[in-house]
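Field: sequence (string)
Field: structure_tokens (string)

Example rows 1 and 2, in order.
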Amino acid sequence: MADVTRLSQEDQARIKAAVHAAESGTSGEIVPILARQSDSYADIALWWSIAIALFALGFIAVFPDFYLGLVDAVLGRWAIDWTPRAVLELALTIATLKFAGSWLLLLWRPLRLALVPKSIKMRRVRARAMQAFHLGTDRRTTGRTGILLYLSLAERRAEIIADAAIHGRVEDDVWGVAMADLLAEVRKGHLADGLIAAIGDIGAVLHQHLPRAADDVNELPDRLIEL
């Protein structure tokens, strides 16, 4: 997926128009959300740093002569007899340095994200999308006809979450076309085009299963929310 910057006002206006057009034939309310990242993954960085420090301790335990000889060579000392206390201090020093160095390296977001297991990314994007849905869409419409389109750029994942009235009429796999059209454009770096394509697909599904009522009113803003 290509890197993209914050959307221009023109792109935001295009997305707003796409939402308005998609909702013109349905009682559904489409809420598109763009998130730069769904989680900081600070805990993952912590666990990696701990694992590397423990690995260093294990290496010292299995190959003590390597580190002891290295320290003697660096300090220019003749080989000496290491006391248990000196060995322990050396081990703790190395483990601390490994932990601190790993933590500092993992402050670089691309590396941290690369080390996050895919399954964890999926769960956290889903959790953030659900949180956004409950805050901005769930039960916010009279007939519970809201639907959230959530795109998280850092994790390269998207979610579509529908309120009760839509979920009860439309199977989850129906949204596959919208997801495919969205990601196909975003991978090319066409972020706005991807969102517009997905919004159009969602609108077509909603028009089929939840056509616009005569007394329908627009209950949610027709705009992109950027987090």
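Row 2 begins here:
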Amino acid sequence: MTAEAGDDRKVKVACLQVTAEREFEPNIRKLTRMIRTVAAEGAKFVLTPENATMIEPVPAAALRKAKSEKDHPALPALTDAAREAGVWLLIGSLSIKLPGGKLANRSFLVDDNGAIVARYDKLHCFDVNLREDEWYRESDTIQAGSEAVLAPSPWGRIGMTVCYDLRFPGLYRALAQAGADILTIPSAFTRTTGQAHWHTLLRARAIETGCFVVAPAQWGDHAEGRKTYGHSLIVDPWGETIADGGEGENLVFGALDLDLVEKSRRRIPSLHAERPLTLNDLTAQREAAE
């Protein structure tokens, strides 16, 4: 199937909701099996979560285990699985060793011939203090990306993002204004932030942009006490939830009709109604006068 070829604007998608272990091989075997299963059920676009082939919470171990792109065992295994199943595949992200010593949190879009169509390095590192006993410093090991990515597919343009990017709405607005129809947000959201914000943020990104949002997510209890939220979500351009993966390791299906993108944007054309912003900071003016 050629990217952006033909008139077919409908596609059945499948999110693979998994609980990743800290070694590659068990995760790769699980994902390849799941790809075959969802393809047999009619999915044409399959998406894995962020870090689906390894969650290693210990930074030193994550750096030691990571592979360069050319040596990463997941890439040939998963691209072959996409080719054999005849599906497009979003590999939510892999930890890719970079020459400078850090890692890229890199998402890959793969076509149904097993060729890599696009790569995207996560722009925003997850550096947060959630509680006294729960904090994350992704920038200790991850080198942030520098470019937003809009990629072709047979059904429309895909804006590629990863997890914590979700909290930066300007990125999604820019992708939508550049022509995105589908926004992919593979994630390993913490249980703490997922319970508080996950559904609200995903529906907001869909509503603000008039795009489909497809967000495959990790679920479960991982090594070293890491806990992820699950609830892989597929949301339509009007903000309606098409599918919610809930808890557990699940296969989450949804049907996308890409004609709904233009229909939603005609109803509320906010992407094209934005006006230049001038900020009148009266507080600063008053303080200066004093």
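free_text_note (row 2): The CA atoms of residues 62 and 112 lie 30 Å apart.
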